[in-house]
């Protein structure tokens, strides 16, 4: 009973829906995080907070 257990989640690839190798916890905060998908090899920048993942807005070219 030393450490409180936190819920953990595997982030899903927003491109193909596959499971990435990135694991977060319920209180994890990610900002402009480059999420890599080993399945489709896409890298998608995301924000993550409060158990919700949001795609980063790409700046205008
Ligand atoms: Zn993918």
**Portion in beta strands:** over 45%
As a percent range, the share of helical residues equals under 10%
Number of structural units classed as domains = 1
Biggest β-sheet description? 3 strands, antiparallel
Number of separate strands: 5
Low-pLDDT regions: none
Q: Output mean pLDDT.
A: 91
Category by helix and strand content: mainly beta
Radius of gyration: 13 Å
Q: Give the bound compounds.
A: zinc ion
Please give the order of strands in the largest beta sheet.
Answer: 3-4-5
Which terms would index this structure?
single chain, 61 residues, mainly beta, three-stranded antiparallel sheet, two-stranded antiparallel sheet, 0% helix, 49% strand, binds zinc ion
How would you describe what is shown here?
Helix content is 0%, strand content 49%. The chain contains no helices and 5 strands. The radius of gyration is 13 Å and the shape is globular. The termini are far apart. It is mainly β. It has a 3-stranded antiparallel beta sheet with strand order 3-4-5, with no helix packed on it. Strands 1-2 form a two-stranded antiparallel ribbon. It has strands spanning 8-12, 19-25, 30-36, 43-49, 52-55. The protein has one domain. Residues 13, 15-16, 18, 37, 39-40, 42 line the site of zinc ion (ZN).
Short description:
With 61 residues, the protein is mainly beta. The protein has strands at 8-12, 19-25, 30-36, 43-49, 52-55.
List the SSEs and their pairings.
Layout: E1 8-12, E2 19-25, E3 30-36, E4 43-49, E5 52-55
Antiparallel strand pairs: 1-2, 3-4, 4-5
Bound molecules: zinc ion.
